[in-house]
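Duplicate of #3305? Posting structure anyway:
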């Protein structure tokens, strides 16, 4: 049976499968004036044709064939990603209700019994081709819409990241001694989270999504420094006790600024905030507020601004506490030289259980070489 036909017919391709040449001739002759027709006289031949171009838009499949019956052919078609979506109509002499039910249960779209009635066969063929067109169109539309949504989300995430990093850099640029502090502390926090993600005390708070939020929020930990007077923030010497008390307020200033942003978004409706959390970018701001407010808290309760103790300190703040102190110890300031790595490690160990969560210190000790690599990669003066 040829694959070329009269001009003006549909460009749809129909594969007719039957082990009897007479049936191929009758069904093919009926369809060929309207469609491109391909034929196969065995199950194995049908699979080969279905997997070649032009791929059939519809398959008319006999059931009773030697070596490989129609049921087995359909099962093979459904296993192959290239052919699994091709609709299959059984055309068979098996006319029992149970035969029809079984054929349809395997995934056939229709079941037509022989001898065929030309008008009925043509009508059903056209119906299933139209249904396939509709499914294909919906699939293409859904694919386009999913792609568009994904693109818009990537754009929104990029705009959010750029905006929030701009805010973080604003605070950093006012404090001209911090250099690449934001990059280093963010990388330290990411390293700690990777080390702790399966730890029994931390896994609940360090899912993949939560780790991403924490990493993106980390650069905002010192955003409150924009509210510190220049004569204190930029003082080229150690601060007096009175000046240090003012400097300490940057934690509260940053947290209050982020809280005000959240309040503006939800219009002061705390119930709405509770409803939205877990589903919106507001989660990012909540995490950022925890970090900004709590990264100077200490495990023994002697930190600021709230004097939180132990597990009352949010996990993101505990991670940032160690990352921030390590960076302060290993970087040069106007009032101090950079400590050697060994000395910085010793001081962190000394703070285990007093300044820092003991398990966070243990995680740091397990990956201190990675901290050293990060410090070198983002050393001040590099980009």
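Output from current build:
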């Amino acid at each position: 049976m040829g694959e070329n036909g009269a001009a003006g017919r549909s460009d749809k391709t129909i594969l007719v499968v039957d082990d009897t040449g007479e049936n191929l001739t009758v069904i093919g002759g009926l369809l060929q004036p309207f469609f491109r027709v391909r034929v196969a006289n065995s199950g194995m031949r049908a699979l080969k044709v279905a997997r070649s171009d032009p791929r059939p838009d519809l398959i008319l499949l006999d059931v009773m064939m030697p070596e490989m019956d129609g049921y087995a052919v359909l099962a093979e078609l459904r296993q192959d990603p290239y052919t699994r979506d091709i609709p299959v109509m059984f055309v068979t002499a098996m006319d029992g209700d149970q035969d029809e039910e079984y054929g349809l249960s395997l995934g056939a779209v229709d079941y037509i019994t022989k001898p065929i009635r030309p008008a009925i066969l043509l009508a059903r063929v056209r119906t299933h081709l139209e249904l396939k067109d509709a499914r294909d169109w919906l699939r293409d539309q859904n694919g386009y819409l999913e792609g568009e949504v994904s693109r818009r989300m990537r754009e929104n995430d990029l705009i959010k990241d750029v905006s929030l990093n701009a805010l973080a850099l604003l605070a950093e640029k006012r404090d001209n001694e911090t250099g690449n502090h934001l990059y280093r502390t963010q990388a330290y926090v990411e390293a700690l989270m990777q080390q702790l993600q399966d730890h029994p005390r931390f896994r609940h708070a360090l899912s993949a999504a939560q780790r991403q939020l924490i990493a993106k929020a980390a650069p905002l930990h010192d955003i409150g420094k924009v509210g510190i007077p220049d004569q204190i923030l930029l003082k080229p010497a150690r601060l007096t006790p009175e000046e240090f008390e003012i400097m300490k307020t940057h934690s509260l200033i940053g947290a209050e600024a982020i809280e005000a942003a959240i309040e503006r978004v939800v219009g002061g409706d705390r119930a709405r905030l509770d409803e939205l959390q877990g589903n919106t970018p507001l989660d990012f701001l909540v995490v950022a507020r925890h970090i900004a407010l709590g990264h100077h808290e200490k495990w023994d309760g002697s930190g600021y601004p709230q004097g939180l103790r132990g597990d009352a300190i949010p996990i993101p703040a505990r991670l940032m506490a160690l990352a921030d102190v390590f960076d302060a110890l290993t970087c040069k300031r106007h009032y101090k030289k950079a400590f050697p790595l060994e000395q910085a490690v010793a001081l962190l160990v000394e703070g285990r259980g007093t300044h820092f969560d003991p398990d966070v210190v243990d995680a740091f000790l397990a990956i201190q070489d990675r901290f050293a690599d990060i410090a070198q990669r983002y050393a001040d003066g590099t980009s």
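Confirmed duplicate; merging threads. The first strand starts at residue 13 and ends at 17. The chain has two domains: 13-141, 175-377.
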